[in-house]
Design brief:
Layout (H helix, E strand, L loop, with lengths): L1 H28 L6 H22 L1 H9 L7 H33 L5 H6 L3 H11 L2 H18 L13 H21 L11 H6 L3 H10 L5 H4 L5 H12 L4 E3 L7 E3 L9 E7 L18 H8 L2 E7 L5 H10 L21 H6 L4 E6 L8 H7 L3 E3 L12 E2 L2 E2 L1 H17 L4 E6 L22 H20 L7 E7 L17 E7 L7 E3 L3 E2 L3 H8 L4 E3 L16 E4 L4 E5 L2 E6 L3 E7 L6 E3 L5 H19 L16
Parallel strand pairs: 3-9, 3-10, 4-12, 4-13, 5-6, 5-9
Antiparallel strand pairs: 1-2, 2-14, 4-11, 7-8, 10-11, 15-16, 16-17, 17-18, 18-19
Helix pairs in contact: 1-2, 1-3, 1-4, 2-8, 3-8, 4-7, 12-20, 13-18, 17-18
C-alpha cells in the first residue's frame, strides 16, 4: 500500500512547503498590521485549511492511482500518466503561490470573489498582469522552480504498485473520497474566522480553498444565508425608514412615492464622472500632503463638496449600481451583472422621463463587467473605446484608453448631444487609476508606471484639463458636473469592513447652479442621485432607497458598505455587520477607521435597521420590484 501512496506523499511535501512559504511571506508583508500574538492562532488555523485543501487537490491523483489497471504491460502508461499529473500539479501550486502574492499586493487579502470574477475576463486580467509585471522573467522562474521541486522529490514520483491488490486500491480511493466529502461538509470559509484581526484571519486561510469557496458562494440568496426580519413587518419598517418631508407614498404598501420639491425645476445638462479607485485620502482636502489632486482640490473649494460620503462596495460594479439605481449592495454578485437587471428605476429613468438623453461612456471595452448590457437595457446609449480611431489615442492599457482620450470622446459626444436641443445626462467611467499605472508622458511630474500616486495625479490632471476644455463649450454654463469615486483604491484593513477604506470624495460643480458649500454630514453613495435631483428642484416618482440629504432630519444619516458577503450599516458611530450563517456583529470603528472594537452594549435598533435595508432590497430585486413602476414585464417574467 505504501508504494501506491508515494506520489501522493511527495505531492503533499511540495504542497505544505509552498503553503508554509506563502504564509511566511504574507506574514512579513502584514507585519505592521498583525499582532504577533495572533500568529500563534493563525498558523495552526492555516494548517487546518491546508489539510482540507490538499484532501481535495490530491483526489484526482488518488483516483488516477486507484482506477488504472494493475501494472503489467500497462506499467509504462501508468508511470507516464502519474508523471504528467504530478508535473501539472506542481506547476499549478507554484503558479498559485506567486499569484497569491500579487493578489495580496493589490487587494490585501487571499483569493476571494474578485479573483473568481476576474476569471470571466481573462483577456483584460492576463493583459493587465503582463503589462504590470516582468512576466517573461516570472514565467521562467516558475518553470525553473517547478523543475527544481520535481527533481528534489524525484524519488517519490515512481511507485511500484505491483503488489497492491484491487481491494487496497478501492479502500485507498474510498478513504480519499470520504475525507474530501467530510471536508466540504464540515468546513467552510468562515468556520475558523478570527474576527479581531482580518490580516491574521486571511493569513490563516488557504488561497486555493478561499478561491473555490468564493466560487461556491458567488450567488448568495439573502433569505437563505442572512438574519431576517419577519416578512409581515418588513414593508412597514422600510417605509418608516424612507419617510421624508418631501415624499408622499402612492400606495399603502411598497416604496413608490411622489417626491415634491418646491421651486421651479432646473433641467441642466448633467455630467457624472465616476473615477476609478479614488480614495478620499488621496486628496489634500482630506489631509494628503503629496499634492496629488490639485485640480480636484480646487474644484472642491468651488463646489458642493461632500466630505463624509462612503462607497457601498469595493468594486466598480458596486459603484455603478449605487450611482445609477440607488439601492443597497446585494450579497454575492452586483445587480449590474445579474439576470433581469433591465428597465430598473434609477437616475436614468427619472431623467429620461424629463426628456434627457442618456449616455454612458467608458474608456475600455464595455462588455467588461456587463456594463454594455446593463446600461443599454436601462435606456442609455453606450459609447466605449471602439468609437475612437487609433490616431485619437495618446495611450492605452489593457483596461482602456488614457483618461484624456476618454474625455475628448466625451466632449465630442456632448457637443453633438447639445446640438440636438435636448438636455443630456452623460456618465463617464474612467480607467487610468488602475494597475499598471501608465499614462502619457509629460502630463505630470511623476514618471509613468512608477505606482499609484502617479496614476492618481494623472487622473486629476485629466479631469482638470477636461473641465477647462468644457468651459469653452457653449453648453458649459448650463451643465452640472458630478465628480465621485466608484470605490477606494484598497479595501483591506484589520477588520472585515474597515470604514476608512470606503471613504470617497464627491462634489457637485456648477458655477451657475451650486454656490460653494462644504457638506460634512454622513452620506451613502446611494444618496447622491436623490440629493442631486433635490438640489435641482426636480419632482418625480421615486423608488430610490437613498435620501435627499437636504430633506433628511439630523440623526437619520447612515452609510451602507459591504463586501460580497459582509453587509454593513454605519450609523450613530456604530458599524452593524450581517454575515452568512445568520451571524451578526456590531463594532465601534477606530478613530483611524482601519480597525474596530466590539460594541459593549448591543444596539438592537441599528441591527434591525441593517436587516431591513438589505433584506428588503434583495427580496424586492428577486420579485422584480426594483424595475420602474411604469414598466410592464413580459408574460414569461411575471
Amino acid at each position: 500500500m505504501k508504494n501506491l501512496l508515494r506520489p501522493v506523499l511527495g505531492l503533499a511535501i511540495a504542497f505544505f512547503a509552498l503553503a508554509l512559504l506563502t504564509r511566511c511571506g504574507l506574514l512579513v508583508a502584514a507585519r505592521q498590521e498583525l499582532p504577533w500574538l495572533l500568529v500563534w492562532i493563525s498558523v495552526p488555523m492555516g494548517l487546518v485549511y491546508d489539510l482540507a485543501t490538499f484532501a481535495l487537490l490530491a483526489l484526482p491523483l488518488v483516483a488516477l492511482q486507484s482506477l488504472l489497471p494493475k501494472p503489467g504491460r500497462w506499467r509504462t502508461l501508468h508511470s507516464v500518466l502519474v508523471q504528467i499529473a504530478v508535473l501539472l500539479a506542481l506547476a499549478v501550486l507554484v503558479l498559485v503561490a506567486v499569484s497569491e502574492w500579487l493578489f495580496w499586493d493589490e487587494f490585501g487579502v487571499r483569493f476571494n470573489f474578485i479573483a473568481v470574477d476576474y476569471l470571466v475576463y481573462t483577456t483584460e486580467v492576463v493583459g493587465n498582469i503582463w503589462q504590470s509585471y516582468p512576466m517573461p522573467a516570472i514565467l521562467c522562474g516558475l518553470a525553473l522552480t517547478t523543475a527544481v521541486i520535481y527533481g528534489l522529490l524525484s524519488s517519490w514520483w515512481w511507485p511500484d504498485p505491483q503488489t497492491v491488490t484491487g481491494s487496497q486500491r478501492g479502500a485507498f480511493l474510498l478513504f480519499a473520497i470520504t475525507f474530501a466529502a467530510l471536508d466540504l461538509w464540515l468546513l467552510d470559509a468562515d468556520s475558523l474566522a478570527l474576527p479581531k484581526n482580518n490580516y491574521a484571519d486571511q493569513i490563516g486561510r488557504n488561497g486555493i480553498y478561499q478561491f473555490f469557496s468564493a466560487y461556491r458562494h458567488a450567488e448568495l440568496d439573502y433569505l437563505s444565508f442572512y438574519r431576517q426580519q419577519p416578512a409581515d413587518t418588513l414593508d412597514g419598517d422600510l417605509r418608516r425608514l424612507l419617510a421624508t418631508p418631501e415624499a408622499r407614498f402612492r400606495h399603502d404598501h411598497g416604496i413608490e412615492r411622489d417626491i415634491v420639491n418646491r421651486g421651479p425645476e432646473q433641467h441642466p445638462n448633467i455630467v457624472l464622472i465616476s473615477i476609478e479607485s479614488l480614495s478620499a485620502d488621496f486628496m489634500s482636502s482630506f489631509g494628503n500632503s503629496k499634492g496629488l489632486t490639485p485640480n480636484l482640490d480646487r474644484l472642491a473649494s468651488n463646489s458642493q463638496f461632500f466630505t463624509q460620503l462612503y462607497a457601498t462596495g469595493n468594486r466598480t460594479v458596486r459603484g455603478l449600481e449605487a450611482l445609477s439605481i440607488g439601492v443597497p449592495p446585494s450579497p454575492g454578485e452586483a445587480i449590474v451583472k445579474r439576470p433581469h437587471n433591465d428597465h430598473l428605476f434609477g437616475l436614468g429613468s427619472v431623467l429620461a422621463a424629463k426628456d434627457y438623453q442618456l449616455l454612458f461612456l467608458y474608456g475600455g471595452y464595455s462588455y467588461f463587467d456587463n456594463m454594455q448590457q446593463y446600461f443599454t437595457a436601462n435606456g442609455y446609449q453606450v459609447i466605449d473605446r471602439t468609437a475612437l480611431a487609433p490616431a485619437q489615442i495618446h495611450h492605452e492599457t489593457i483596461w482602456g484608453v488614457a483618461d484624456e482620450d476618454l474625455f475628448t470622446l466625451a466632449l465630442n459626444t456632448f457637443d453633438a448631444s447639445a446640438a440636438r436641443g435636448r438636455p443630456f445626462f452623460g456618465q463617464i467611467m474612467t480607467v487610468s487609476n488602475h494597475r499598471p499605472y501608465t499614462y502619457p508622458e509629460g502630463r505630470i511630474d511623476i514618471p509613468s508606471k512608477t505606482g499609484r500616486d502617479g496614476a492618481v495625479k494623472y487622473t486629476d490632471w485629466a479631469i482638470g484639463n477636461f473641465i477647462e476644455r468644457a468651459r469653452r463649450q457653449p453648453w458649459f454654463d448650463n451643465t452640472v458636473f458630478v465628480i465621485v469615486a466608484d470605490h477606494c483604491a484598497s479595501s483591506a484593513g484589520r477588520v472585515d469592513l474597515p470604514v476608512r477604506r470606503y471613504h470617497i470624495p464627491a462634489l457637485f460643480y456648477s458655477p451657475k447652479y451650486f454656490p460653494p458649500e462644504r457638506v460634512d454630514r454622513l452620506m451613502s453613495q446611494i444618496d447622491l442621485a436623490p440629493t442631486l435631483l433635490g438640489k435641482l428642484g426636480m419632482s418625480y416618482r421615486s423608488q430610490f432607497f437613498g435620501y435627499d440629504l437636504a430633506q433628511l432630519a439630523p440623526g437619520r444619516e447612515r452609510a451602507l458598505l459591504a463586501t460580497y458577503q459582509q453587509l454593513g450599516l454605519l450609523k450613530a458611530g456604530v458599524l452593524s455587520i450581517l454575515k452568512p450563517q445568520r451571524l451578526v456583529l456590531q463594532q465601534l470603528p477606530d478613530a483611524d477607521g482601519d480597525g474596530a472594537t466590539p460594541l459593549p452594549t448591543p444596539r438592537d435598533d441599528l441591527l434591525a435597521e441593517a436587516i431591513t435595508w438589505y433584506q428588503a432590497s434583495s427580496v424586492m430585486f428577486q420579485r422584480g420590484e426594483l424595475r420602474d413602476a411604469e414598466y410592464a414585464p413580459p408574460e414569461s417574467e411575471r
